[in-house]
Amino acid sequence: MDQKEYWNSVSETKLFTLPFDGELFSGYAGKDSIIVDVGCGYGRVLKILQDEGYGNLTGYDFSEMMINRARRESLQIRFETMEKGKIPREDESADAVILFAVLTCIVSDEKQEALIKEIRRVLKPDGILYVNDYLLNPNERNQERYRKYEKELGVYGAFILPEGAICRHHSEEHIKELFREFETLEYKHVVYTTMNGHESPGFTFIGRKKKT
User: Residue 1's pLDDT is what?
Assistant: First the structure.
C-alpha cells in the first residue's frame, strides 16, 4: 500500500492529535491574514482557526479522500488537492503557512527540502511558517525500529507502522538545516501524543521567511 492509498483508506476514521497553540499563533498572524495549511488532512486546524475568527483560510492535501472529508465538514473553508508536491497557488500569496505532522510523513531529505522550497515560494516576504512535528525518540522501542528500517527506508528515524503508514522522526540538526532560510521566532520542545496513542518528543517552530 502506497502512502496516498493508506491516507485515503483511513480518511474517515483517523483523528489527529497535535495541539494547535492559538495564542502563540495569534502573536504572528492577525485575523485578516491569508493562512494556508499544507497537509491539512480533514481540516482540523483550519476549523479551529475559523472558530477563533480567522476568515481567509485554505487547506491543501495530497489525499483526495481527506480533502473530500474536509469539504464535507467545513463548507466555508476552501480545500484543494496537491499533485506531485506542488501547492496550487501563486507566488508570495500567503501570510502564514501551517505544517502540522507533515514532515513525519515524508521520508526523504530531498522531498522535505522540496516541500519547504515550495512553502517559501507561496509565502509573502516576511511570511510566517508554523510547524509541529516529531523528534527522534530515545526510548528503546523507537531506537529498535529506527535500526530495523534504516537500511530499507534509507534514513535513521524512519519506520513503518503495522497498519502500513511510513513515518519519520527527526534529529534537531536536520530540522535546523531544513529551516535554515527562515528566521527562528519560536522553537520549543513538546511531548506529543501520536495518532496511535503513544507519547513522543517533538518541537514547535515558528519562523519568518528570510529575504533572499
Answer: 55
